[in-house]
Amino acid sequence: MISTRGRYALRVMIDLAEQEPGRYTPLKDVAERQRISKKYTEAIMAGLSKAGLVDAAHGKGGGYRLNRPAEEYSVGEILRITEGDLAPVACLEHGASPCAYAENCRTLPVWDKLNLMVNEYLDSITLASLAE
Amino acid sequence: MISTRGRYALRVMIDLAEQEPGRYTPLKDVAERQRISKKYTEAIMAGLSKAGLVDAAHGKGGGYRLNRPAEEYSVGEILRITEGDLAPVACLEHGASPCAYAENCRTLPVWDKLNLMVNEYLDSITLASLAE
DNA sequence: CCATTTGCCTACCATGTCAATAGGTTGTTT
DNA sequence: AAACAACCTATTGACATGGTAGGCAAATGG
């Protein structure tokens, strides 16, 4: 359900949240602290950057930093961006072709509520509450 | 998180719960009603049978039937048997090698509680409540 | 006893995702 | 110009998934 990629992304974001706010932190440092390979961290960071969760600066003294205060990120948001979707079943995934038998599917309500529960829980946790 | 296999297994179990109790239902009939290929249904049913969730009878007039009243099955039980595990992250899976940094992992409590929530919810739904 | 029905078992395959790596390019700063 | 750091595109190996094929074993009905 939640892959290594997503879990790493969360750890990376927590790491950034623990740095001095506003300052850029080189990816290399984050990767070393989190014991994630530099290359793999790059791939993950690229997604976070493209989605606008973090801000990047090239060159010496550059690196990454959070774009907003840590209280304004939720775990759900971070995971949805890196994982694409948190839906527990394929038929609820964003952009899934609607199931022809959904109308009288006995199991759909189960997945529906599960989906809601998971998302609500993860949305209720802020990045700040996990840092420091 | 929950694959086709698990979702099919649940539908199959609901189908059996809707048949006359005690009577054997041929796999062929279940597969046709549920619009799942006979062969794939076989593979799924084999797991349910081996785990003792259903009872099988060979030969003419044979088939499958539930081993207990439908009220005594939970969705969680059925899914855990067919999916192996419902853990949202690898480090919580049954038999996973314990993470060396679990002691001071900032994210572990999140996964832990998520795991608990998901299992408790799915365990609270009985097969009977989905049938008929 | 034999044919039919039905479950059971083993193997196989095609596709796709995941984790991770490699190498090079672009942009910034000092 | 040199060092640094982000960015981009491929590629790889391993594994899970969804699904199929063919044959064997057991039970039943006639």
Defining key terms:
5 helices, mainly alpha, two-stranded antiparallel sheet, DNA-binding, homodimer, Arc Repressor Mutant, subunit A
Largest interface, C-beta closer than 8 angstroms, per-chain residues: A-B, 26 and 26 residues
Low-confidence stretches of chain A at least 5 residues in length (pLDDT < 50)? Answer: none
Radius of gyration of chain A (Å): 17 Å
Order of helices and strands of chain A: HHHEEHH
Shape of chain A: elongated
Name the CATH superfamily assignment of chain A: Winged helix-like DNA-binding domain superfamily/Winged helix DNA-binding domain
At the first level of CATH, the class of chain A is: Mainly Alpha
Number of helices of chain A: 5
- Provide mean pLDDT of chain A, rounded: 94
Number of domains of chain A: 1
Question: What's the short version?
Answer:
Chain A is mainly alpha-helical and 132 residues long.
Description:
The structure is a homodimer of 132-residue chains. Chain A has 132 residues and is mainly alpha-helical. Chain A has helices at 4-17, 27-34, 38-50, 75-83, 108-123; strands spanning 54-57, 63-66. In chain A, helix 1 crosses helix 3 (38-50). The first copy, chain A, is elongated and about 60 Å long. The mean pLDDT of chain A is 94. Chain A binds chain B through residues 1-2, 4, 7, 10-11, 14, 35, 75, 88-90, 101, 106-107, 110-111, 113-114, 117-118, 121-122, 125, 130-131, and chain B through 1-2, 4, 7, 10-11, 14, 35, 75, 88-90, 101, 106-107, 110-111, 113-114, 117-118, 121-122, 125, 130-131. The structure holds a DNA duplex (30 and 30 nucleotides).
